[in-house]
Write a structure and sequence with these properties.
Elements: E1 4-5, E2 12-13, E3 16-19, H1 29-41, E4 46-48, H2 64-74, E5 84-89, H3 107-121, E6 126-131, H4 157-169, E7 173-179, H5 183-196, E8 201-207, H6 219-226, E9 229-233, H7 264-267, H8 274-289, H9 294-303, E10 308-314, H10 318-326, H11 334-347
Parallel strand pairs: 3-4, 3-10, 4-5, 5-6, 6-7, 7-8, 8-9, 9-10
Antiparallel strand pairs: 1-2
Length: 352
């Protein structure tokens, strides 16, 4: 598979990225090993994980995904050199005291999280180390509006960058990225990096799919002008855009056991909104009318967008992985893109 530069970093990444957050929850270790083997075989050499995984997040599975990847790497001599490995430091606790108790991201917090990830992964360096969500208050994970009254920021962005710079200097990480960010956050991180000679953000990992195109409301211009790559997560809207929930009347509580939508924590989020399910069904029907599977169409939407540096696919089986990689060859006609815009005008972004 081809590779492309990630922002202004030295990293060359594949346009499809293996997301691993289900490893250790929905996906057993044995199945995760098979998925990683197949991903490497098919040329998908950009992999993403995080300290808080597996998801849905809970204390019992904190760090489980990184540990599974670490055991896979230990059993595959030479595999580490073939992979661009990304992980994330969790932001301030969002009801997850097992990660950290405080509301900030101190230097000690970031250092300890990085050391923990390195230990679980069994590697000396992480290629792309990302801030999983901002330390400051932002509208994210289904929250639509910024509220100054909720601001509880304790660690300035410059201090966060200075800590990440130390990790770069120590050879523990190569490049940095952000996740669940806003235009202000990207601009400020880049400004501070350029002003003080600190590591420059290479990428932002935000949701982007047919039922959440909020990236196109300013983030696309911001990152294009600043040369920061989008790592699109949830391209299938946690499965809503695969067609698996299209049965008439199905809601989150009715979702098949073991699917993402069957988890109460997911049902309470943006993807569990009735409007998101309704919009997804309309897009899925559109795919069928054009002779495509819903998955093919939804992934091709991300794969073919100039906005996307790499699309993160979270799979739970080999068949899912193969379908996602095969969709790379799907081309979307211009009239279909126009229909996407018409549906977006009607439904807007219910998965935002």
């Amino acid at each position: 598979m081809e590779t492309r530069p990630l922002g202004q970093s030295t990293l060359q990444v594949t346009p499809i990225c293996l997301g691993t957050m289900t490893f250790g929850e929905q996906v057993s270790e044995a199945d995760a090993f098979s998925i990683m083997d197949r991903a490497l075989e098919r040329g998908v050499t950009f992999w993403d994980t995080a300290e808080m995984y597996a998801v849905p997040a809970r204390q019992a599975t904190y760090g489980a995904t990184e540990a599974i990847i670490g055991r896979w790497l230990a059993a595959r001599p030479g595999a580490r050199e073939q992979i661009v490995l990304a992980s994330k430091v969790a932001g301030p606790s969002r009801g997850m005291p097992w990660i950290r108790e405080g509301k900030g991201m101190t230097a000690a917090d970031i250092m300890a999280s990085c050391e923990g990830s390195l230990r679980r992964l069994g590697v000396d360096v992480i290629d792309l180390y990302q801030i999983h969500w901002p330390e400051r208050h932002v509208p994210a994970f289904g929250t639509l509006y910024y509220d100054p009254a909720k601001e509880v920021a304790q660690t300035p962005m410059q201090a966060q960058l200075e800590t990440l710079a130390k990790l770069v200097e120590q050879g523990k990480i190569r490049h940095i990225g952000l996740s669940n960010e806003t235009p202000y956050g990207v601009h400020e991180f880049v400004r501070l990096a350029e002003q003080y000679g600190l590591p420059r953000v290479a990428s932002v990992q935000n949701p982007y799919c047919l039922i959440n195109r909020s990236w196109e409301n300013a983030m696309d211009e911001t990152c294009h002008r600043l040369d920061v790559g989008l790592l699109a997560y949830s391209p299938l809207g946690v499965g809503l855009l695969t067609g698996k929930y299209d049965q008439s009347g199905i809601t989150g509580p009715d979702a098949p056991k073991g699917t993402r939508l069957s988890y109460p924590s997911v049902q309470k989020q943006r993807w569990g909104r009735p409007e998101a399910l309704e919009a997804a069904r309309r897009y899925n029907q559109l795919a069928r009318e054009h002779g495509l599977t819903p998955t093919q169409m939804a992934l091709a939407f991300c794969y073919r967008s100039w906005r996307v540096a790499s699309t993160i696919i979270g799979v739970t089986s080999l068949s899912h992985l193969d379908e996602a990689v095969d969709a790379w060859n799907v081309q979307l006609p211009g009239e279909l893109m126009e229909q996407f815009d018409a549906l977006r005008w009607q439904y807007r972004d219910p998965g935002q």
